[in-house]
Every structure is written in C-alpha cells, then in structure tokens.
Amino acid sequence: MELDLNVRPMVLIYISKNAAVDDIQYILYGLEEEKIPFSIEQRDFTNAIAAAYVAANTSSLNVGIGYVNNEAALHYKNLAPETPYQSIQRVVTCPPAILKNFGGNAARLVKGVPFKSIDPTEVKL
C-alpha cells in the first residue's frame, strides 16, 4: 500500500445536493475553532447517518459528518454503520452554540479529547 503524500488529513463532510452549506455554518465554525481541517462535498444520500458513515470511511482521519434532510450526524470509521457518535435533528432551527459544539466534537474525536455537550439543558445558549 502506497501513502499518498498529496492527501491532506481532514474531516469529510457530505451534504445532500439540495442542502445549503449555510445551514451548517456553525458546525464548520466548531471545526475551525478546534483547528481541524475539513472538506465539504455534495452527494446523494438518503439520510445523514449513511452520509456520515461513508464520509468517516473515506476520510484519512476516520471521522465524517453527514447533513441530509435537516439532520446532521457525526460518525467514526470503527462504529457500526447505523450507530453514529452524535446526531442532531432540525439543524436549521438548532441554537448556534449546540451546532458549534457538534462541529467541535468532530474535531475532538480526531484529537481524542472529551466532547462538549450538545444537550440544550447543559449548553449556555
């Protein structure tokens, strides 16, 4: 197996073709704040969990995010396909602080450090 030195390690984010990147802007802020690079690609998926799983298995960092039908999912390569680390319903109406923590958690999964809460009762909104 050859190592491709031109591939930059990053979290992959697969969003549906009809989704707007603006919908996940705060998720991206969370990744940026933790200083983990990411790449966004628009693809056809039926749900966010499937998109996140494929992204995680394609990412050189083994971490992926999917965004489909107003749902976001965070997945890790070694988890079962139907079992993401975290998911968020109704992303468009979700508080920015929770979305930012969710994106930060993707970066924290890469780093191996504890997650931030995405529970609305625990996050200062």
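The above is record 1. Record 2 follows with the same two-line structure.
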Amino acid sequence: MIKYIALYKKPADEGFDQRYFESHLPIVNSVPGLVRAEVAKVQQVFLAGFLGDNEPHLIAEMYFESEESFKAVLQSPEWATSGANLAEIGGMELVAMFSAEVVS
C-alpha cells in the first residue's frame, strides 16, 4: 500500500480551510484508485524538529492499493484537476507532499 501525505503549514488566510474542504477535498475524493483519504487538523506540536518556524495545520493522507495504482493516479485527469485546484485556492505555497510505502 502507498500513502501520499500532504502536510500543510498554517495559512495566513482564514478562508483557506473553507476552500480546502468545500472545493479541494471533493476533487481528491474523486481520484480513481483511492482506497481512503483522511484529513486531520493539527492541535498541538510536541517537538517541532525540522519544521523550524512552520506551524503545521493540516495533514492529508491518501491511500492507494499499490505503487502501480499510485503511478496510474499521477497520470489521471482527476489528479491534474486536484493540483490545479490546490494552486487556485492558495495551497501550493503551504504544502509539502511526499509518498511512502506502508510497511506495518
């Protein structure tokens, strides 16, 4: 299983959350091959470590059955639409994204 993680720092724009949940999340949920998606709001940071001055705000996790299905998703129109939407709503400058193989 592959997990795609998006870590968002706290936005200066208070309207970001509304745009994210009303506009972006429905597009993400339409991505083919998505097994499940979760979004969590960070309540407290216990050890900032490498985050420096960045205050984490949201953690989005999207699960895909395999590396092959994840690679196919990256080529899908829905994935492209989600990226364009994220740029539109002001999220690209807030996010770090990475994928990971679920090993346990």
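The beta strands are 2-9, 34-41, 56-64, 95-101.
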